Amino acid sequence: MASSDTIFGRILRGEIPCDQVHADDRCLAFRDVAPQAPVHILIIPREPLENLLDAEPGHAELLGHLLLVAARVARQEGLEGFRTVINSGAEAGQTVFHLHVHVIGGRPLAWPPG
After folding, report:
1. For the domain that residue 61 is a member of, what is the CATH number?
2. Using CA atoms, how far apart are residues 90 and 6, in angstroms rounded to an integer?
3. In angstroms, rounded to a whole number, what is the distance separating the alpha carbons of residues 52 and 63?
4. In this structure, is residue 114 part of a structural domain?
5. Quick check: is 66 in a domain?
6. Catalytic residue among 40, 98, 100, 102, which?
7. Residue predicted with more confidence, 2 or 96
8. Residues with Cβ within 8 Å of residue 8, at least 6 apart in sequence
């Protein structure tokens, strides 16, 4: 389980402002401060789950909700195509150890990504 002392925990508590695009009782979505594309939104669960490796069967509904919110914010932003990314662990590029979904779009995205 992740500590709520990450930067995302501080954002959730309102200690650090964010450019919010969606909020509900399970998650918060906001614009990334260092965007990698014209649209780069982060979706974080209110529950401090460190990464996908910490997810358990009881998190299935939350994980599905995060993906539905990803589609909702992509639509809001007018994206016809976009990428969702979840980095799990330092070796995958995770730098904030609080699960988060990246919604990236607004330009052509190359493959493979890394």
Report:
1. 3.30.428.10
2. 15
3. 9
4. no
5. yes
6. 100
7. 96
8. 44, 96, 98, 100
Q: Express each pLDDT in 77-95 by its tens digit.
A: 999 999 999 999 999 999 9
**What is the model's pTM?**
0.94
Tokens of 40: 């780069």
The mean per-residue pLDDT over the stretch 66-80 comes to 98
Asked whether residue 99 is assigned to any structural domain, the reply reads: yes
Structural contact between residues 100 and 41, judged by C-beta atoms closer than 8 angstroms: no
- Find, among 11, 23, 9, the residue nearest to 73 by Cα: 23
The values of phi and psi at residue 23, to 5°, are -150, 140
Nearest residue to 69 via CA among 45, 91, 99, 50: 45
- The total domain count for the chain is 1
Q: What is the pLDDT of residue 114?
A: 63
Residue 78 structural domain: 7-105
Does a structural domain hold residue 112? no
**22 part of the active site:** no
